[in-house]
Amino acid sequence: MSDPYKIFHCIRTIRSKKMVKTNNFCWCSGLLLCFVGFFLTPGEAALKKYQFDVQVKNVSRLCHSKPIVIVNGRFPGPTVYASEGDTLLINVTNHAKYNMSIHWHGLKQYRNGWADGPAYITQCPIKTGNSYTYNITVTGQRGTLWWHAHIFWLRATVHGAIVIMPKQGVGFPFPPPYSEANIVLGEWWNNDVEEVVKKGNLLGLPPDMSDAHTINGKPGPLFPCSEKHTYVLEVEQGKTYLLRIINAALNDELFFAIAGHSLTVVEIDAVYTKPFTTQAILIAPGQTTNVLVQAIQAPNRYFMAARPFMDAPVSVDNKTATAILQYKGIPNYVQPILPQLPALNNSAFALSYNGKLRSLNTAQFPANVPLKVDRHLFYTIGLGINPCPTCLNGTHLTAALNNITFVMPQIGLLQAHYFNTTGIFTTDFPDHPPMPFNYTGTPLTSNLGTKQGTRLSKIAFNSTVELVLQDTNLLTVESHPFHLHGYNFFVVGSGIGNFDPKNDTAKYNLVDPPERNTVGVPTGGWTAIRFRADNPGVWFLHCHLELHTSWGLKTAFVVENGKDSDHSVLPPPKDLPPC
After folding, report:
1. Global pTM?
2. Domain that residue 544 falls in
3. 350 and 404 co-located in one domain
């Protein structure tokens, strides 16, 4: 039985004793100590408390040692475990020199944007020496999500998994695995990431790319000084394992495969899918994918490997991170077998893989796709060049939605909205680009200036929204993974070229489209999503490539309150960090 299952066996054993009001401590095989307070009878929701200490620690990788910002001395950080319906109290204390905020990526935070985490969107950051408790109720969700810093580029090292088990007595819609493991994909820079970004900003250019990719914080033995920095997963012959895969990389979509083993996809972004088997998966920054792996090959050591996908003329860190799937009893000196990953620019695989993703859409796990649309939005994604007097070459690269580069405010947008503070943002973000053009035609290399502003879009409560995200050839086409906070959405359509509102809508999947919180817009193409705006508050929409987010490829929706207090934003907590 794996560590996560031991944790939940411990928790459910405690529940079975029908304690009314006790605090119980479960030490789970050396994992994070879980403070589990139960105030209810078995089968009902629990209160779980976590302490996150943000601190600086020296870590060595690739023959280099440097101080990095991490949580609880761990890289990646501790896994947050919960069951559907639980309440989490996660107290974050900032001991680092940087301001800090943490986003609980994919948790819907109904009416409670105060716990969402993006700095200057739903809160001001936690200053050095201060604390803030994120009060989160897990409602109607189960599966794999993750948490990460949401300020500067600190999520390079400040991140970890969130594992939400189904309610007690509710099983998986697939055969239960023997055990499970988290697989967190990331990036590593030999130099201080924030200094690398500052250097790039000074030049007005992209910062240096990462020096390696990592699996559970380790690059694997294909890199120098990395034999001991290799993650190993031991498996038993004939058993089935659930891998919870998270792409925590800052700027790279990644292929992932295991030599000699097929992967059966059963969940994306904490939503069950119709199972399908593949030799590799594609996972964008911000996304999660659960796969089943059967250990039915000849006992040996097999490499798990991750490498970028990039089908545009953009430089990436094209290095392969590896970990080892090791059958029990096989000695460590046996040389692992490498998998055959798709080529760096294999667009056909990417399109085919994403086309296979379908919601489970059963009576127990329905796909409630909005069939009628109240609000149609069309956002173009583009790069640009703006003047920059402080940059060495006088200009800097930028990014924009509908030609608007988002300017971050100095106080939280949710606070400004809740307290009706004027002058912080406007709600005049355009529903369509200012001037239609051949979005994916010949590259456009002139007149690349963008407008700037803190402009948001106001959405009526409980209205249904369709948003088409259209890539453009402003400087270059490129794939963009977009994340919407506070919501899941249905990916009803996607294609290459310019979106055709007549012919493309006729091809929409309105029966079982994939439901997720982060979606890749294909290079030189478009993606259409639909959602019901039933979660009031201010919700961030942004590219999950950290480079593009920092360049302004972002905006936010102001979802209005409903007709009564039960459908309105909750009051802010007393310990909300001051601005």
Report:
1. 0.94
2. 375-567
3. no
